[in-house]
Write a structure and sequence with these properties.
Blueprint: H1 3-13, E1 19-20, H2 21-28, H3 32-48, E2 55-56, E3 61-63, H4 68-78, H5 87-100, H6 107-114, H7 118-134, E4 138-142, E5 146-150, H8 153-171, H9 178-185, H10 193-208, E6 211-212, H11 214-232, H12 248-262, H13 268-279, E7 283-284, H14 291-312, H15 320-334, H16 344-353, H17 355-363, H18 366-372, H19 378-396, E8 402-407, H20 412-425, E9 428-434, E10 449-452, E11 463-465, H21 474-488, H22 496-511, H23 517-535, H24 545-548, E12 554-558, H25 563-576, H26 582-595, E13 601-603, E14 606-607, E15 621-631, E16 641-648, H27 652-666, H28 669-677, H29 681-693
Helix pairs in contact: 1-3, 1-4, 5-7, 5-8, 6-7, 8-11, 10-11, 10-12, 12-13, 14-15, 14-17, 15-19, 16-17, 17-19, 19-20, 22-23, 25-26
């Protein structure tokens, strides 16, 4: 048993009611698997003393029913505050200290760090030498100087990152385990270093419009902190010949900003190594805009959800949020851009609480594996099951009151599940999920409250931190914030409940007689449109581009001479209808002047001027013009442009969906050909509608 195991055992026996695993996660900030290992080590000790072991319920409640006095005596025997490190721990810390040091480390200093004797240090040196050899480093020991790791700077940094990641993964919050705290502090003891690195990395993400997954963000940030410390000590990496790859600009901007912040030199070798890390990192991406792949992905996702629905006897086929998140997740798996579940406890949690969902996901995964051209491991199947669990929770409870942004530093599946658990307990509307390192980019006027599993800096909006799995103390904290917001928030007439009830009643009675998936979708959209006209709009229901571009927002055979004039003319319908302001159009023109509109081109002959989410947009809308004569947009290979779709979006979800759907359509040559042959604006709107609803010339027909 280590120190944390003893502290956990002490906490459990101190309370007659026991404690929840969620409490331990919140207190020690370690992975679920680490807590599970601690509990097993406690039970091993209790069994060795012929005592009753800890009981762990399916809900995560831990109770000790043995003799408390005996348990207290055991704690005294193992000496809570004088735990010695295991051999593996000693070797990790020794290796890390040697790699991170600029010169020799005295034997006495190493013994102090390990809280061990000089003889113990020397006894471990052979194993440490073997560890270093796997990192292409050598160990040298001199009687009057101590120990030193010899090798190339590149291999040294990779070794530091490898050991540091293993320590933090195993022990979590370093302040709960003193020897690991010392080891980690030896890397990050420059005041504010890691905070500055994270700010630089986030800035470059936004500038480059490329976002790392949380796991990769943390790994790259740790590497950059290591690199900064080494460079500040005068240790640089020499360059070798290499071809600049896709992540070169990203790496170059990061190191340029580090050069400014830390006054360190900038060498090609540093850019080269950082790019190699970025090439192996995972990024959050939209699915590829290839219409054939998107159509195929949509088909297998719908089939997967339908089969699971049949297995579980719960209809998830109309859960469009589930379909969207599942498509995004499968697309991320195809790009190897997902943070898979690795926690043994979470797998146990799914087996105990949602074993039917886990079994169904595994049973129906074959088509997805064919699409990915590989088999999914148990962790990846569990992540699929978590998305399904989120969909089930979403179906059980719909709410629309306080608008909440959920911030979670773990996998997206866990984040979605946490969001649905929150909606089950509270009268809230989840506006979205954000990564802990990029939360400020998701804050807008529609967010009333931020609920985060991670501490947040400089958060001006009301926020509350909760544990990864909600514990009892979290509920009153959240409710207090909701009550405070409701006390000042105007009451709105919530029409979503009658909308859902009426839609479900009508569509379910009709859909029982419709087998064809495509026909079901078309009919559902028609039913939705009629109910919407009767009850009013329902914002959470997925929209289509043809609904955002009515015929009166479409103009054909427009005359213009350049890209700036094309942008102004395409914006006119939205400007006249009060969808956008003059300031939004001015910002669009300013961006156009930087590259003559090249950044707006999304397909051959197709441009979509937009600047993302903007407060200058009054209402979400789009307008489309077809030019009489093509004009040049930048120096893009997609020139010339004759179709220009102007976008104005004031809500994040609509922004992402609108852009994603438009990019898909802009890749289809037959779709653009029909737009160019259309005789009037009504016909152009009909062409867009038919492609989106899967009628004449559907995207799926191109798969």
């Amino acid at each position: 048993m280590n120190k944390r195991s003893c502290m956990i055992f002490s906490k459990i026996i101190a309370s007659k009611e026991g404690c929840d695993i969620s409490e331990l996660l919140a207190e020690y900030k370690v992975p679920l698997g680490a807590i599970y290992e601690d509990l097993e080590s406690i039970n091993d000790l209790l069994m060795s003393k012929d005592m009753e072991i800890l009981e762990i319920s399916q809900s995560g409640k831990i109770v000790f029913k043995g003799e408390w006095d005996q348990a207290a005596n055991i704690l005294d025997e193992v000496s809570l505050y004088n735990q010695s490190l295991s051999k593996k721990e000693r070797r990790m810390i020794m290796s890390l200290k040697l790699l991170a040091s600029d010169g020799y480390v005295e034997i006495g200093e190493m013994a102090t760090i390990l809280e061990a004797s000089r003889t113990t240090v020397m006894g471990e040196s052979l194993e440490v030498e073997r560890i270093l050899a796997t990192m292409k480093m050598a160990l040298s020991i001199r009687p009057n100087k101590g120990m030193i790791a010899l090798g190339e700077e590149k291999e040294r940094r990779i070794g530091i990152l490898s050991i540091l990641s293993e320590i933090l993964e195993k022990y979590g919050a370093e302040n709960n385990y003193l020897p690991c705290q010392i080891a980690v502090t030896s890397i990050f003891d420059t005041e504010g270093l890691l905070d500055t690195i994270e700010e630089i990395l986030t800035t470059v993400e936004n500038n480059q419009n490329i976002h790392l997954t949380d796991r990769s963000f943390n790994k790259i940030a740790k590497y950059l902190a290591i690199a900064a410390k080494r460079m500040l000590g005068g240790h640089y990496i020499s360059a070798t010949e290499f071809v600049k790859g896709k992540k070169y600009e990203f790496a170059n901007e990061v190191l340029n900003r580090m050069h400014i912040n830390f006054n360190i030199a900038l060498y090609d070798g540093e850019v080269q190594l950082l790019e190699s890390f970025l090439n192996n990192a995972s990024f959050v991406r939209e699915q590829a805009a290839n219409p054939r792949e998107m159509a195929r992905l949509g088909k297998i996702t719908r089939l997967f959800i339908r089969n699971v629905s049949n297995d579980l006897n719960i209809d998830l086929t109309r859960n469009y949020t589930l379909k969207d998140t599942m498509m995004s997740h499968i697309g991320a798996l195809a790009e190897k851009a997902t943070d898979e579940i690795k926690d043994a406890y979470l797998l146990d949690f799914l087996n105990n609480r949602f074993d039917n969902v886990l079994r169904s996901a595994g049973k129906n995964i074959k088509d997805i594996e064919v699409f990915l051209k590989r088999s999914l491991d148990e962790s990846e199947k569990a992540d699929m099951a978590i998305h399904l669990c989120a969909g089930i929770e979403r179906k059980r409870h719909e709410s629309n009151k306080v608008n909440v942004l959920v911030v979670c530093g773990t996998s997206t599946g866990v984040g979605y599940y946490l969001a649905e658990r929150l909606k089950l307990r509270f009268n809230i509307n989840i506006k979205g999920l954000a990564s802990s390192h990029n939360v400020h980019g998701f804050i807008d006027d529609n967010v009333d409250l931020v609920i985060s599993t991670e501490p947040l800096r400089n958060m001006e909006r009301p926020w509350v931190q909760v544990s990864g799995i909600l514990k009892n103390e979290d509920y009153p904290k959240i409710q207090r914030e909701i009550d405070a917001i409701n006390s000042i928030k105007p009451v709105k007439n919530d029409r979503s409940e009658p909308f859902i009830q009426l839609f479900d009643a009508i569509s379910s009675s009709i859909m029982t007689h419709v087998e064809d998936i495509l026909l079901r979708q078309v009919l559902e959209r028609k039913i939705f449109a009629h109910i919407r006209d009767y009850l009013g709009s329902y914002d959470d229901y997925p929209f289509f581009i043809h609904e955002l571009i009515p015929p009166n927002h479409i103009r054909i055979d427009v005359k213009c001479d350049n890209s700036e004039e094309a942008i102004k003319l395409s914006a006119e319908p939205l400007l006249k209808s009060g969808f956008i302001t003059e300031s939004y159009l001015r910002e669009m023109i300013r961006i156009n002047q930087m590259d003559n509109g090249e950044s707006f081109v999304i397909g051959d002959g197709f441009a979509a001027p937009y600047v993302g989410l903007d407060k200058s947009v009054i209402r979400t809308g789009m307008s489309l013009i077809r030019l009489r004569d093509s004009v040049k947009f930048g120096n893009s290979s997609h020139n010339p442009v004759d179709l220009v779709c102007f976008m104005g979006v004031n809500e994040r979800k609509n922004h992402l969906k609108a852009l994603h759907n438009l990019i898909q359509l802009a890749q289809i040559d037959d779709f653009k050909r029909k737009l160019r042959l259309a005789k009037c604006s009504e016909e152009m709107n009909s062409i867009i509608r038919n492609y989106e609803l899967g009628l004449d010339g559907t995207m799926e027909a191109h798969a």
